[in-house]
Every structure is written in structure tokens, then in C-alpha cells.
């Protein structure tokens, strides 16, 4: 297990370094720079050159890249060119909104998808199964921003149960703050629940067809004990893999939903920074989000290896991801 852990940590570091290099080079090749945006198109060449020197844009790209990596290592993410404040503080304030939003959406998605997947698998071919399949198809086909608009129209405009947008801040109380996150979390959760319900259904169908399940039935075990004591525990291995990957997506994939609800989270900060060409914020934020996704993938792989020894034995290092894809293939055949 130790050698597997070391190998995965080395891969994590290499992937994160490669991602940082790709992001840095991509922003380097964009036309224009922060100095031009700050001063406008009417600025003189001397003024523009002075500001470029102040921002360090006149130095070689390789030196700036190494300095940027050193700053990451020490926790110094630099200063925003537009707002003139430390980027680390900006990201911390926005993460205090995006992370609870992702946690609530994750809990809603799990609470919806796993019971639906079990229901579909245990009533294969019946009305419940087809209803779950229909829900999954709609959830996969409809983008989450459309769900967000629909939720606003129903629960904010017509019923008046929730605000249509904005965030009161945690200092105003946990209740009002969580209330403001309910609708955006639901919009995020519906699409993810559609995916997770299909994976749960596929995993349960495959598990229920195993020999040990037939043996348990032959021994006279109750339906509930077979379903929850044997089938569900083994079916949760690929489901747990998808859960980890979905949580990473929910943290970094809420850009549009946060803008629909005017939530000052990481997604809204990223979009604003792109429009304002605050490239240092864009660079830091994209790398941090990429690092979070890579870290979650690492943790999922380690958890999978702790449950199933085959990745540690070198059978298939990416077994966690293969299991998820196999689930979709079995799902299509079963449907």
C-alpha cells in the first residue's frame, strides 16, 4: 500500500505542475495584458511601460512562472490587479460560500439518487424503473442553469418561498444564509442526481445478478437483509467513486449557477475576473480549482484501493474510473 501511495502522490504532484504550466502559458499567449486594461487604450507608451514594470510584466515569462510557483508554496498568491487586495483573502471569502453550496448540493444529490437507483434496480422493467430512467434522461439533457431559472420562477416569483438571488452573508445568521443557498444547491443537485441514480441502478443490477446473492436467497435470508446487507454494500464501490468526483465538480462547476443567483462565490469571481482581465486572479483560481479536482481524484483512488486491492496489485490503476464507465454500459443493456 505504501508504494501505491507514493506512486499516486508523485502522479498528483506531476499532474498539478503540468496543469499550472498549461494555465500560465495559456494566459501568456492571450492578446493584451493587465496594464493595458487598467490604463485603457488612450494611455501613452511611457505610462504603459511604467505600469508593466510595476506589475512585473516586463520580466521574462520563465522567471515569473518560477516566482509564481514559489508564491504558491509559501501561500502568497499575489495581489489582484483590479481590486488591489491579496488574492488569498479574496479566495477565502468566496470559498466560504462555494464550499457550503457544494456540500448542500452534494447532500441533496445523494439523498435523491441512491434511493431512486435502488428503487429502479429492485423493480427492473416496472413503472418505477422507467420513471427513474426518464428522470435520469431529463436530468442529463437539461442544463443546470435552466433548472436554476425554473426554480426561481416557481419558488421565488410565484410562491415567494425563497429569494431570487443574492447572499445575506454568514454574519447575518446561519438560517438566512443557508436559505439563500437552497435553490442554487437544488439546481446543481438535479443534474448530478440524474448521473448518480443511473450509476446506482447499474451497480445494483450487476450486484443482484451475482452468485452470492442467489446463494443468500437460497439460504432463506430476508429481502431487506439481502438488499441492504449484501447487495448495496458491494454496489456502493463504484457509487462512492462517482460521489467523490461529483463533489469536485460541484465545487468548481457552479460558475453559471452562481451567476444566475448572484452568489459571490468562486464561480462568480472567476467570471468577473475574466471579464475584467484580472489575469492573476484567473490564473490562481483556475490552478487552485484544478488542484482540488486532482486531489479529490487522488483521495477517491486511495479510498478505492483501500476497499479493492486490485489497483494496489497493479491490475488496473484506474479501476475506479473504469467501474463508473462500465456502469453506464450495463445500464444501457439493462434498460
Please write out the topology.
Blueprint: H1 2-28, H2 34-39, H3 45-55, H4 61-74, H5 87-122, H6 127-141, H7 144-158, H8 174-208, H9 211-218, H10 223-252, H11 255-260, H12 266-275, H13 279-307, H14 319-334
Helix pairs in contact: 1-13, 5-6, 5-8, 5-10, 6-8, 7-8, 8-10, 8-14, 10-13, 10-14, 12-13
Summarize the structure.
The protein has 335 residues and is mainly α. It folds into 2 domains: 2-74, no CATH class; 87-334, MetI-like fold, CATH 1.10.3720.
Name the features.
single chain; disordered C terminus; mainly alpha; about 75% helix; MetI-like fold; 14 helices; about 325 residues
Could you explain how this protein is built, in words?
- The protein is mainly α and 335 residues long.
- It folds into two domains: 2-74, no CATH class; 87-334, MetI-like (MetI-like fold).
- 77% of the residues lie in helices and 0% in strands.
- It contains 14 helices and no strands.
- It is globular, with a radius of gyration of 24 Å.
Amino acid at each position: 500500500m505504501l508504494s501505491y501511495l507514493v506512486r499516486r502522490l508523485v502522479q498528483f504532484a506531476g499532474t498539478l505542475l503540468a496543469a499550472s504550466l498549461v494555465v500560465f502559458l495559456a494566459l501568456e499567449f492571450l492578446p493584451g495584458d493587465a496594464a493595458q486594461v487598467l490604463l485603457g487604450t488612450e494611455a501613452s507608451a511611457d505610462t504603459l511601460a511604467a505600469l508593466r514594470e510595476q506589475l512585473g510584466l516586463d520580466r521574462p515569462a520563465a522567471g515569473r512562472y518560477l516566482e509564481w510557483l514559489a508564491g504558491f508554496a509559501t501561500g502568497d498568491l499575489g495581489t489582484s490587479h483590479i481590486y488591489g487586495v491579496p488574492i488569498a483573502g479574496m479566495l477565502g471569502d468566496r470559498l466560504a460560500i462555494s464550499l457550503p453550496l457544494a456540500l448542500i448540493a452534494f447532500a441533496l444529490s445523494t439523498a435523491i439518487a441512491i434511493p431512486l437507483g435502488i428503487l429502479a434496480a429492485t423493480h427492473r422493467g416496472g413503472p418505477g424503473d422507467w420513471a427513474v430512467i426518464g428522470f435520469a434522461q431529463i436530468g442529463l439533457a437539461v442544463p443546470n442553469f435552466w433548472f436554476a431559472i425554473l426554480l426561481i420562477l416557481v419558488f421565488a416569483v410565484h410562491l415567494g418561498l425563497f429569494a431570487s438571488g443574492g447572499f445575506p452573508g454568514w454574519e447575518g445568521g446561519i438560517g438566512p444564509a443557508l436559505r439563500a443557498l437552497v435553490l442554487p444547491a437544488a439546481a446543481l443537485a438535479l443534474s448530478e442526481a440524474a448521473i448518480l441514480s443511473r450509476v446506482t441502478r447499474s451497480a445494483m443490477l450487476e450486484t443482484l445478478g451475482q452468485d452470492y446473492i442467489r446463494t443468500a436467497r437460497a439460504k432463506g435470508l430476508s429481502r431487506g437483509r439481502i438488499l441492504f446487507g449484501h447487495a448495496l454494500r458491494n454496489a456502493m464501490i463504484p457509487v462512492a467513486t462517482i460521489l467523490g468526483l461529483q463533489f469536485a465538480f460541484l465545487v468548481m462547476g457552479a460558475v453559471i449557477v452562481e451567476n444566475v443567483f448572484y452568489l459571490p462565490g468562486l464561480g462568480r469571481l472567476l467570471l468577473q475576473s475574466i471579464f475584467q482581465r484580472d489575469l492573476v486572479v484567473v490564473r490562481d483560481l483556475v490552478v487552485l480549482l484544478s488542484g482540488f479536482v486532482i486531489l479529490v481524484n487522488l483521495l477517491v483512488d486511495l479510498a478505492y484501493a483501500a476497499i479493492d486491492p486490485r489497483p494496489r496489485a497493479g491490475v488496473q490503476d484506474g479501476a475506479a474510473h473504469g467501474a463508473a464507465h462500465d456502469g453506464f454500459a450495463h445500464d444501457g443493456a439493462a434498460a
